[in-house]
Design goal:
With 64 residues, the protein is mainly α. Helices cover 61% and strands 0% of the residues. The termini are far apart.
């Protein structure tokens, strides 16, 4: 699937994900090996920031 090059909604969503990861875990999506395309796939699939962060928490082993 082709994604738009410039999408304000995705940019804000990505910033919120990055800000939370940096604040809570001290890492970025790049540190986790997540590229822009994989992030766009989750955003355009309808994942909210909180849903995506929960998915990442599962990857990090931090989910309760």
């Amino acid at each position: 699937m082709a994604f738009p090059i410039d999408d304000t909604g995705f940019t804000l969503w990505h910033y919120n994900v990055e800000a939370h990861l940096k604040r809570v875990h001290g890492i970025s999506t790049k540190d986790l090996g997540l590229d822009r395309r994989s992030l766009q796939e989750r955003y355009y699939a309808g994942d909210s920031v909180f849903t995506y962060l929960d998915r990442i928490a599962g990857l990090l082993g931090n989910r309760a």
